[in-house]
Amino acid sequence: MGKLREPLRDIAECGLPAALEAMGERWSFMILRAAFNGVHHFEEFLSALGIARNILSGRLAKLVEVGILKRTPCPDDRRKVIYQLTEKGLDLLPAMIALRQWGERWETGVPSNPVLCDERDRRPIQPISIRAHDDREIDHTALCWIDESELRERRRDCEGQAVKKLAAI
User: Fold this and answer.
1) What is the enclosing helix (H) or strand (E) of 9?
2) Distance CA 102, CA 108 (A)
3) Distance separating alpha carbons of residues 106 and 102, to the nearest angstrom
4) Contact, 76 vs 55, CB < 8 A?
5) Cα dihedral 59, 60, 62, 68 sign
6) Which H or E run includes 117?
7) How far apart are CA 94 and CA 92, in angstroms?
8) Maximum Cα–Cα distance for the chain, whole Å?
9) CA pair distance 154, 139, nearest whole angstrom
């Protein structure tokens, strides 16, 4: 991936450790999976996942604390609570699908059933991939690290060229 590489010791500036800290561990992912499947109540999570009450309680509290789930009183019964995905939680869907697809390919060797499909045409979704700015699918050999100062300079150059083109019209 080129000569420049990200500073591996500087984890404070890297999103990966922060994401792992927010999600915690396996049960958090399983809770998130259940939430994406329409599970909303503590007892439903408990039943669907077969998780211990104390573990579930702690993981739900952590997911609420970091803003992945929100906790609201149930309108029908104020003693019950509804757990819903926030925008931040919904943004984890591509990562969840990518991890699931990876697990199916490399760990279980078993495709999922039911199959995740596009609701519009009811056809299976494509594997999650890395896409370039122009929507080309690329792999690790087409990636490089570029210092942000160079990117800012390139943006200024592009903007300058665009202004010159407009002025010429």
Assistant:
1) none
2) 9
3) 6
4) no
5) positive
6) strand 117-118
7) 6
8) 69
9) 23
| Residues with Cβ within 8 Å of residue 167, at least 6 apart in sequence | none
Radius of gyration of the chain measured on its C-alpha atoms = 21
pTM confidence score: 0.82
What distances in angstroms separate CA 11 from CA 14, 39, 89, 117, 159, one per listed residue? 5, 34, 22, 36, 33
Question: What tokens appear for 83 in the block?
Answer: 């757990």
Burial class (CB in 10 A: 0-12, 13-18, 19+), 10: exposed
- CATH 3.30.70.1350 given to domain 11-91+129-138: no
Tens digit of pLDDT at every position of the chain (169 positions)? 556 677 777 777 778 888 888 887 899 999 999 999 999 999 999 999 999 999 999 999 999 999 999 999 999 888 899 999 999 999 999 999 999 999 999 999 998 899 999 999 999 999 999 999 999 999 999 998 888 888 888 888 887 776 677 677 7
Residues 82-111 as b or e (16 or more Cβ within 10 Å = b): ebebeeebeebeeeeeeebbeeeeeeeeee
Amino acid at the residue 127: P
CA distance 98 to 57: 27
Position 43: which residue type?
E
